[in-house]
Amino acid sequence: MPLAVCATPIGNLEDVTLRVLRELAEADLVLCEDTRRTRILLERHGITARLKSYHEHNEAERTAEVLPRLQAGERIALATDAGLPGVSDPGARLIAASLEARVQVTVLPGPSAVETALVASGLVGDRYQFLGYLPRGERARVALWDELARWPYPAVAFESPRRLPASLATLAAAMPDRPVAVCRELTKRFEEVIRGTAAEVAAQVTEPPKGEITLVLGEQPAVKGDEQDALAAVAELVEAGSGRRQAADVVARLTGLSRNRLYRASL
Predict the structure, then answer these.
(1) What pLDDT, in 10s, does the model give residues 11-39?
(2) Which of 133, 187, 218, 249 could crosslink 123 through cysteines, CB 3.0-4.6 Å?
(3) Which class for 57: exposed (0-12), middle (13-18), buried (19 or more C-beta within 10 A)?
């Protein structure tokens, strides 16, 4: 029997597929991130199942325990608290081990916080990048914003509500005009989407909000004509021997444009 990777609701318990419910009901064992959370989902839909925890602290142990049972033909389902196992949630280790052992793996799709936030933000583009959870440290976040300044398409990330104000502040300093949406408690009763430029949203979100957060960055705004002239001036100074940051600082003071934006756009 295959390992069934089951996507579960990201909030609203009605956002679960009939196929996932059937698999959870018929499995010999359901592995889940938090048995209490999964039991609430099962009880909501009248399902009784044998549950066992599978989370980041016992992944290796559980994988070694469960793999022989899969090879012996047991029917095992893998779920997380919300979304699809293996995507910023436990599950990748068991999936990889099952494939290596030639155990069939079947993925049962369902709700996705990434795609839900992207559509709700109104910032959908031809392509996007998923960043997982944002770095904890400020220096690492600033380095990420430097990287994304050269990525013109939308990007989606998860963030802790506690760190959100600080993350937005550094984002606003790096890319103040970039469109941003903070998606909070998606599909739940108090769902909220805050939209605006990075500077506008950072000014609005100054205290840690409650609930789960998905952050969406829209496409990088095109450089305006006056900025083109400023960038040409930065390039000339660099060619003459000035450091790039020093050149961007000089031109920014003369033009009133953002030093960070000039520096990143000149790279």
Answers:
(1) 999 999 999 999 999 999 999 999 999 99
(2) 218
(3) exposed
Q: How many Å apart are CA 155 and CA 128, to the nearest integer?
A: 5
Q: How far is CA 212 from CA 90, 106, 193, 265, in A?
A: 18, 28, 12, 33
In this prediction, residue 193 has a pLDDT band, given cuts at 50, 70 and 90, of: very high
Check pLDDT > 80 for residue 225: no
User: What's the order of all strands across the beta sheet hosting 192-197?
Assistant: 129-133, 155-159, 213-217, 179-184, 192-197
The phi and psi torsions of 164 (rounded to 5 degrees) equal -55, -50
- E strands of the chain, at which residues? 3-6, 29-32, 51-53, 76-78, 105-108, 129-133, 155-159, 179-184, 192-197, 213-217
- The pTM is what? 0.81
If DSSP codes are grouped into helix, strand and coil, which group holds residue 260?
helix
Tell me whether strands 3-6 and 105-108 are parallel, antiparallel or unpaired: parallel
Output b/e per residue, 130-142; b: 16+ Cβ within 10 A: ebeebbeeeeebb
Res 76 pLDDT > 90? yes
CB neighbours of 158 closer than 8 A, spacing ≥ 6?
Answer: 88, 113, 132, 133, 134, 212, 213, 214, 215
Query: What is the β-pairing status of strands 179-184 and 213-217?
Result: antiparallel
Neighbours of 177 (CB within 10 A): 15
- CA 171, 197, 148: angle at the middle one, nearest 5? 40
**pLDDT value, residue 224:** 62
